[in-house]
Amino acid sequence: MTETVADITRYEFDQIEKELRKKLVDYSENAEIQSQIGEAFYIWKNTPEFTSEDISEENIDELTFGKFLDWFLYDFKLLDSEKRVIERFYLDEGKELSDTEKELIIDWIKSIYSFFEVKEVFSGEKCVIKDIFTGKVFEVLDKASSKQIKRTDIIAARPLKIGNQYYFSGIVSLYPATFKNLITEFFDRELKEYKELYGNQKTKREYLKDWGFRIGYYIEDVASHPHFVTPEGDEFVLATANYFVDEFEQCIKNIEKIKSLKEISDETEEIRIFSWEKVGRNKITGTLEIEKTKLRIECYSVEMLAKAKAKIEKQCKGHIKHLEDTIKEQDKFIDKSKSETKKLKKYPLGIKNKVELDSELDSHYDKWVNTPLEILDGKSPIDALKTKDGRVKLNSVIDELEIIYEQAKNRGEPYYDVSKLRKKLNLV
After folding, report:
1. Where exactly are the structural domains of the chain?
2. What are the residues whose beta carbons fall under 8 Å from the beta carbon of 306, sequence distance 6 or more?
3. Closest Cα to residue 114, out of 75, 72, 165, 66?
4. Which of 189, 215, 232, 339 has a Cα at 20 to 30 A from 147?
5. Is 404 helix (H, G, I), strand (E, B) or coil?
6. What is the pTM of this model?
């Protein structure tokens, strides 16, 4: 009688899975496959200076190599056949595999590297995650990751089915809940472009297999270069507002009335956590946390934070007291699960020196002054100058930008001379 997945013990599964992974990696080392690895790395990392000889664990840090290898094995389409490496492995080596190995490989071919919201965590055992693009829910066994993630975190990972259970394949990247809307907005734009190129019949799953790797690079690049723009055209930072709460119960009642806020915590928890959702014209992205005496708003741009503050201060007037606003550095939030410590690049991609950076930022703000902004009630900075109220709001925005760039300058990061922006607007 043929042995099936249901007949295999957990220990036997572990051994079969390890051996199958080894066979897949060994297959990828064939000369025919290796001849395309340099081009694959160029596509994945957009790093033309790398050659196929450079793509090894000796020349690339372990974390980067692990991420690349996972994508290369499961998602990269070979240039000569348009088949993914794992698909070619199954076609070429399938006859030599056992029935159990075949079942595993067929499931692995379908696997998706995606972004997930952590719904529940059993520390040291497993977690329950929900794909933020497709809504699919997975229960994943992983002792290491389940000790480091918490509910509402966003993780990027590939759940692999092994028998009746799911396990993470390769590297698990961890992001704060604040990044959720940033990720989904980029996904929506990219999916639209993908369908325009390849046809409206293309699915989210096909996009994630073909272009999904771009999402992680977009998020990490934005976080590593906070002086460039969000999808709304705002300067990207992780901005926080802290308040003292005078009347907790009344604040909660008032906050629950805000339609664009959705609670993502249990009502029984000491800290109540809310996420800004897309409702009507709401353009806020971020989270709100409140406990007995503290309230914190966290957004990824100064403009969004200002809008969130205005809404909360109006709704909770008389029950909260503003304490301070802060700008958090981004490198603390990227890949915490693997403790990757990369230094921020001195200049963004494609910028070689400060002269080029100044030119790029001058060009950006030449356009910015004519760009409608939510914080200015949909008016551009130029139009805001025409009214007293608009001028006050514009000055507030520029003051905030000046603080951001001053902090960047003090940290030794690229910065912009905001006095030039004031001159553009005749605010000096």
Report:
1. 5-109, 114-224, 236-338, 354-424
2. 375, 396, 397, 400
3. 75
4. 215
5. helix
6. 0.54
